[in-house]
Amino acid sequence: MTHQPGALRQPTAEEFQAVQESAEFRRLRSSFRSFAFPMTAAFLVWYLSYVLLSTYAEDLMSREVVGNLNVGLLFGLGQFVTTFLLTWLYVRHANKSLDPVATRLRTELEGGV
């Protein structure tokens, strides 16, 4: 099998291991985890709070804020808002901190353009 121009080469297991043990890969993993774990925990707490309040704090959740708009509905809509917000924050973090490093590591490992 001949190597075609622009084709990526298949790295060896030893090369993968070397990249995983590199300081740059450890920083990449740490950057991902330092963002993903706290945000995931915060969102799960927020979501679980909504579910528990909906179940056990009916008086609070049914309290009207404006017209027919009550606290429960605001919390529910807030779930959508926070989902989009977290997605936007993650994309921004990935574009700035994760993707450039991951692309550089991948290019070094696989070659290519």
What does this structure look like?
- There is one protein chain.
- The chain has a two-stranded antiparallel ribbon with strand order 1-2.
- Helix content is 76%, strand content 4%.
- It is mainly alpha-helical.
- The chain has helices at residues 13-20, 23-56, 58-61, 71-110, and strands spanning 64-66, 69-70.
Give the SSE map.
Elements: H1 13-20, H2 23-56, H3 58-61, E1 64-66, E2 69-70, H4 71-110
Antiparallel strand pairs: 1-2
Keywords: Membrane, Transmembrane, Transmembrane helix
Transmembrane segments: 35-57, 69-91
Organism: Oceanitalea stevensii
Q: Which characteristics define this entry?
A:
single chain; 113 residues; mainly alpha; two-stranded antiparallel ribbon
Sum this structure up briefly.
Keywords: Membrane, Transmembrane, Transmembrane helix. The chain has helices at residues 13-20, 23-56, 58-61, 71-110; strands at 64-66, 69-70.
Low-confidence stretches: none
Number of helices: 4
Radius of gyration: 23 Å
The rough form would be described as elongated
How much strand content do the residues show? Answer: under 5%
Decide which structural class fits the backbone.
mainly alpha
Q: Number of DSSP strands?
A: 2
Order of helices and strands: HHHEEH
Report the end-to-end length measured between terminal Cα atoms: 20 Å
Q: Characterize the main sheet.
A: 2 strands, antiparallel
> Strand arrangement, largest sheet?
1-2
What share of residues is helical? over 70%
Number of domains: 1
Average pLDDT taken over every residue: 92
